[in-house]
Amino acid sequence: MIKVNGVTHADYDPAQKLSVWLREGLLLTGTKIGCAIGVCGSCTVLVDGVARRSCKVLLKDVEGADILTIEGLAQPDGTLHPIQQAFLDTGAIQCGFCTPGMVMSAYALLAKTPRPTRAEIRQALKGNLCRCTGYQQIVDAVLLAAERMRP
């Protein structure tokens, strides 16, 4: 059994890659497959709260785990998570291909470090490649989200 965005699944091939299963088996296409070798970060999801590159993870290795994808962040009514909204508000998206992985990495960071420095954000996102934004807007988005998420 694997739980994805709160829904438990039991029918899957344990030898399949998590990224492929999410996209093709569950039709959760927000998780992107860029390089397929764990370098670009576009396939990043959370596995039991830890950011992982899903293209490097086999389903047998996440049996019993709780997976969170970009689709699991928004509210059921479609309201975006504060991190997603901050990415829009700061212009941290351009082509959008890297955005789900960036957002998920930022989510993992803010879950453990609610007041990150720019250096901590850069460190947390260093495994996510973006060819469009120059990264400054992405760092700004994470800082804005952190501010908005504080009580």
Question: Whole-Å distance between the termini?
Answer: 35 Å
Helix and strand run:
EEHEEEHHHH
The chain-level mean pLDDT equals 96
Class inferred from helices and paired strands? alpha+beta
Sheet having the most strands: 5 strands, mixed
What's the helical proportion of residues? 25-40%
Task: Quickly count the domains.
Answer: 2
* Binned strand content: 5-15%
CATH superfamily of the largest domain: Beta-grasp domain
CATH classification class of the largest domain: Alpha Beta
Q: What's the CATH architecture name of the largest domain?
A: Roll
Description of the molecule:
The structure is a single chain. A five-stranded mixed sheet has the order 2-1-5-3-4, covered by helices on one side. It has two domains: 2-72, Ubiquitin-like (UB roll); 82-149, DNA polymerase, domain 1 (Orthogonal Bundle), CATH 1.10.150.120. Helix 2 packs across helix 5 and helix 3 packs across helix 4 (118-125). The protein has helices spanning 18-25, 82-89, 99-112, 118-125, 136-149; strands spanning 2-4, 7-9, 44-47, 50-53, 66-68. The protein is globular, with a radius of gyration of 15 Å. With 151 residues, it is α+β, with helices and mostly antiparallel strands. 34% of the residues lie in helices and 11% in strands. The model has no long low-confidence stretch (mean pLDDT 96).
